Amino acid sequence: MKSRTGLSILNRILVLTLLLGLVLLGSCEKAPDETPGKGKAVRPARATWTTGFFLEAIYSRALEDLGYTVEDAKNLANPIFYQSLVNDDVDFWANGWFPLHNTQLPKNFDEKAIIAGTIVKAGAIQGYLVDKASVEKYGIKSLDDFKRDEVKKAFDSNGDGKADLVACPPGWGCEKVITHHLKVYDMEDHINPIKAGYTASMADALARYNAKEPVFFYTWTPNWTVNRLAPDKDVMWINVPEINPTEGQKGFEKAMVLKGVAGAVTDPIKMGFPANDISVVANKEFLKKNPAAKRLFEVMSIPLEDIAKQNNRMFAGENSQEEIEQHVTEWIALNKDKWESWLAEARKTAK
Questions:
Q1: Residue/partner pairs of 26-31 with CB below 8 Å, 24 or more apart
Q2: What is the pLDDT of residue 64?
Q3: Secondary structure letter of residue 73 according to DSSP
Q4: Measured at the alpha carbon of residue 302, what is the angle toward residues 36 and 202, in degrees to the nearest 5?
Q5: Are residues 227 and 282 in the same domain?
Q6: pLDDT along the chain (351 residues), means of 10
Q7: Pairing assessment for the beta strands 45-46 and 74-75 based on DSSP bridges
Q8: Ramachandran area for residue 90 (φ above 0: left; ψ -120 to 50: alpha; else beta)
Q9: CATH number assigned to the domain comprising residue 108
């Protein structure tokens, strides 16, 4: 018969053995792979508007930190990008605008691609702005006011009898909406949409404003334009005459009338464009093969004001790829904890 002391010692040995086994078992669990993208290439695309370059660069940097080899981004117009995505010629971009881009999606988009993450939720507003001095001088409230002869004359810089509007280049989603507006509001004989390169056209508008001349332009946020020509101080958002949506805007009519917009001529204001989500759009097969990238896209986002600040630096001259990459490095340094948390979430998928 064993003594109580003998049983106690035996029990302790059994407990210690069990604990050691649990420790060893835990140590055998596979830790998250720090570089789940190692040996894999990613083919990004980016939009043709320069204010979207920062987003491509920062998302590509995150993928590089996960070990992916990221190829140079292809500059693509919206319809070409979405077609290239479903054709498996590119893997993703961080320049999706929805619902603005809905009408540019191929018929098989849902089969081959997906909105993989939201960068900015309902923060991207769009519309028409006029310099504040002209708004007050001519009583401008909406596009309809550009049917008046004195208003057209004030904004006519080329003598064609129409008011000049800085619009969007062909291929941009906003170009189609502006064309729709001019038609349905019977403005084609009154407004001349300038469809040249947007940055150059806006630089010309800024020069005219600085010379105390009238300016009339379309813009969106985030964008350097609203840093240089601040709503309520320098310019004012004006209304469309009524809400008359494009095919792609149907169902978003209520979102096209906004309240509390700084620098609006009325409150609420009929913008003519719903507030958009800026999104990551990716190829489904790519996401299936790369769960770390999929999770990264789901958790990552960039504040609207940070995008606007970077865009303003680009317009000020810091617009080379090297400088954009430096902007990314600086943003990461200021948001290190957030950055590391996104990477950690992505790495969890690679256990």
A1: 30/351, 31/351
A2: 98
A3: P
A4: 125
A5: no
A6: 48 55 48 87 95 96 98 96 98 96 95 97 92 98 98 96 97 94 98 95 96 97 90 98 94 94 97 95 98 98 93 92 98 98 94 59
A7: parallel
A8: beta
A9: 3.40.190.10
248 and 200 part of one domain = yes
- Tell me which residue has tokens 């809400």: 243
Q: Is the four-CA dihedral 300, 306, 307, 311 of positive or negative sign?
A: negative
Domain count, the chain: 2
First to last CA, the chain: 50
Vertex 42 angle, CA 36 and 43, to 5°: 170
User: What's the domain range around 222?
Assistant: 126-274
Q: Please report, as a single letter, which amino acid is at residue 50.
A: T
Residue 78 makes CB contacts below 8 A (sequence gap 6+) with 47, 101, 104, 171, 172, 173
Is residue 20, in this structure, part of any structural domain at all?
Answer: no
Confirm if 33 and 40 have CB atoms less than 8 A apart.
no
- Say what the pTM is: 0.79
Q: Are residues 158 and 214 in the same domain?
A: yes
Q: Which residues of 217-245 are buried (b: 16+ CB within 10 A; e: fewer)?
A: bbbbbbbbbbbbbebeebbbbbbbbebbb
Amino acid identity of residue 91, one-letter, is D
Residue 38 amino acid letter: K
User: Under a CB-based contact definition with an 8 Å cutoff, are residues 237 and 267 in contact?
Assistant: no
Q: Domain of 155: which CATH number?
A: 3.40.190.100
* DSSP assignment of 248-276: GGTT-SGGGEESS-TTBSSSSEE-SS--E
Q: Is residue 189 part of a domain?
A: yes
The tens digit of pLDDT for each residue in 18-51 reads 555 554 444 444 556 799 999 999 999 999 999 8
List all residues 6 or more positions away from 48 whose beta carbon is below 8 Å from its beta carbon.
75, 76, 77, 169, 171, 172
Asked if residue 218 is part of any domain, the answer here is yes
